[in-house]
Batch of 2 targets.
Target 1
Amino acid sequence: MAKKQASNASRIFARLKRSWRVRTERLPHHLHLIKKRLKPDAGGKAEPLAGRFCLNPFTQFDLEQGGAAFTCCSGWLPTPIGKLSQQQSLMDIWNGQTIQRIRASMYDGSFRYCRHDVCPHIQNNSLPSVEEAESHPVLGEFVQRRQTRISEPPVFINLVNDPSCNLYCPSCRSERINYRDGPEYEEISSIQHRLLDPLLNDPTERDFTISVTGSGDPFASRTYRDLLYSLDGSRFPNLKFSLQTNGVLLTPRNWQRMSGIHANISQVIVSFDAATAGTYARTRRGGDWDQLVLNCEFLGQKRCDGELKFLRFDFVVQKENYREIPDFVELARELGADRVLFSRLMDWGTWPRHEFQEQCVWHEDHPQREDFLQLMRHPILSAPDVDMGNMTPFRTMALEAGSYL
């Protein structure tokens, strides 16, 4: 009995130690992003965006691990807006001083809390105009009156509170993380319930979206599976689910386990970061290329049959995979995707700084920059099903400098 208790205590201590290390590793990263938000890398300038508007601070609530709250991807807008707790509710945070200042920066056109260099909407010039925001069916009146307090709760809930994942990609983490039980799981589950229970306890016709997940994988996480497999979506006819996954565990069997919300699934986003098995083995550690392709063929058929409304495949550009950019577009089309999205590698603190820089082939002093720019000129990237995201400035730069050879 004593040995068993000692063993249990050791496991709990190890989990707590790992959880603390993960959190402390991410803290310097967030501080680095906050300092950097007006110091862009090549490809973007932190200039005022007069006449443009972003509705994210008026619509989006991101829940990160430990209850930290943001109003956009924290890599794009790294200022936290609060912490969900017994002392601070969703609506307390939603109209707190920090988010009101962020909203004010949309009105004055400065976007001073945003990382202009990596936000894909700034980089690909897809932000709506102020006039378009003023005509928004729900928020138009708030924008017209330049209000920074919003009486309506957020309509886009982004769950990024559980890092549990079946992969351990070098761009994201140094080891596999999966919280199935113990204090980390209990905390993650408790905080998620604190956010979602008021929204899902009673049937409603309210129109809102829950996104799962940019922090790990929906089907590797016990917390997320509990939500996706048990919810009766018919009680929430206007609720939409956006699923973001590495695709390996989104098998036909797990798709069927979500039968209660099939009608609520608005889109599935699958991260590939490769177009071949060899490159995938380097960029997506712990993955299974053959299983991924099989699962995506299944999703493509669901899209073709109209059972899935939108299917997107994503590709984070880095030194390991940039030569496969054109092939990835072709692969996505073969598998039935509506769109592909390319994005720049972000520094999540998992690599030493010099190793991260080595992956950034778009940097001016990178030895493979010219080869990268040549690929950026490829004509396939001008197709309507290709979204270059925050890689857009590099394609523009490449086309201005010459044509594809």
Target 2
Amino acid sequence: MSHTKFLTGRAWNSRIRSQNVTGKEKWIGYLLGPCGALLINSILGGTFLNQYWTDVLKIGGLWGGAFLVVFPLVSKILDAITNFIMGWIINRTKNKQGKARPYILLSAILVPLTGILMYVVPDMAPEWQAVWVLISYNLFFSFAYTIYNMSHSMMVPLSTRNSAQRGLLAVFNQVASVMVTGIIAALIFPMAILPIIGSDKTAWMSVMSVIAIVMLSLMLLEYYYTKERVTAELDKAKTEKVPYLMQIKAVLTDKYMILLLVYCLIYTAGSTLKNSALVYYCNYVLGTYNDGITQMLISVIGGIPMGIGIFAVWPLAKKFGKKNVSVAGFILYAVGSAICWMVPRNMVVVIIGQFIKNIGGLPCAYIFMSLFSDTFDHLEWKTGFRSDSLAMSIYSTISVVLIGVGLSVLNACLNASGYIPPINVGSLSEAEAILAQNGWASQLPLDVYQQTIGGSFTVGIVQPESTIDAIAFLFVGLEVFTGAVSAILLAFVGVEKTLKRKQDVIRERQKEACEAEGKTWVEPEIVMEEEQRLADEEAEVIFCRELKERCAKKGLDYEAELAKHTNALHVRAEKQEKKERLAKEKAAEKERLSEEKRAAKLEKMTPEQRAAKSARDAARREREEAHWEREKAEGEASYRRMQEILKAYREKKQQEE
């Protein structure tokens, strides 16, 4: 789709036309829309897929257990390669609909289709089933979901330069993920669906196919209710291709980017292994197989903070800083995990520990992407070009590769520790014979088990202690260490301190470049406002034409209908004006109260205390200014080097031409 003229018709245009982030954009484009692909990935492509392999297809022991250990890891290496390729493609795409949005539209068809293929495995020899699993898994993850994930990940950085609005979009995006993984995938599906499908293959195929088809419409909502403002801004300015090696150097030599990428590696490793082990932990350590209760309790009670945290985490981040809130959060994260690990079979203790851990996980869940996006602006200030696509490719690659690593480690642990999959039989007498033959014990008395919707019985087996210990460490033990390391790494990420100054420098460079071409510089906000006005006028002309045609067909009074429409527009404008006025008044009142509070606090101080405070404030400002001067000198030197390299690159290209 690079330099493509596809998707130029009005039918493909975004339904978001405002230069500022709108309510529809937040609620539909970044909350509801992403639930489609995320739900497909969480249920069809998540830990339930591994359960399908080990407990339904029963290929966990294929080739001595090597297949499910080696194949996910090898597949994710291929996935990592396609992530970089997709990032490269997005970075070079120029389309009316943006750089990333066209690929969200493409993936709306590919993701559901390939998701279904992973479950409609034909009845044939295990070796041939393994071939089907290998191909369908890579079609989904290395092809279809890579297209979606890379384009979806770019939407927050490309949405706007406004850090506050970008932060809100990151929150809504993460809420979508929490809704899917914390409510549907980890609550409704295991409580309402798993108990009735057991390990019946036909039931699994039917349920997963229905989910994939239904989610297609939500993926289309994400396409239509998002907008790439940064892309539009860059299209207005003079831009040029930047060699990929230069972008790699820019990303991998920046201290903030390195710290954040290493953090992603550590945190994602812990969370991926935990998520992979969740179903097995609930089925064998804390509860019984597909009991419909254990995973629901872990998800609901332990996950309550993730639901209510959206209302607290962003105000805290504004007051104390994204980095500081994240560091404090990860300390709680490690403490909560340690509580769970001490008594991994006690439901009450584990729920308390999960509650504490998830409180600590709020900042990384809701504000990390905003902090990461701030680093993109920092890199642009330092180099003179955007490296968003490459940075997101690396970030996405870490995530996808570690999913494969997580599955490989989990399956290796299950196989090495002697994991016994459940048995799926036509009658309980058959189950009794199999148990006696192998010397196994069922988790519950056989007469307790109920038929699945397919008419069979699924019986869970009591696992060896070695399997119990391995699963418990993967689910609750490992994150004690990853939480502590994450807190240490993020403590050194200070990108927020001087971000506003860097954004001002970027804007000034854009102005200088524009004026150097003999053009008149107009602030991007003003340009977008004028474009918005013209778009509104065009939309009104189209509406009036269509209204006149509709009135002619239905015999309605055009003037009367137009008057209704005009009145509705006036009412809407008045409401918007009132809303904006009240918001300004509220902000002014908040600032007044804050000023009064500061004044009252100073009034209570003694002269000595006020002098000491003034000295501390002056020393702090001096330190901040000194820090900025050092960073500014380093950044300007880096900018000059990068521009010299770009100049040499341009001259070489001109000579070749």
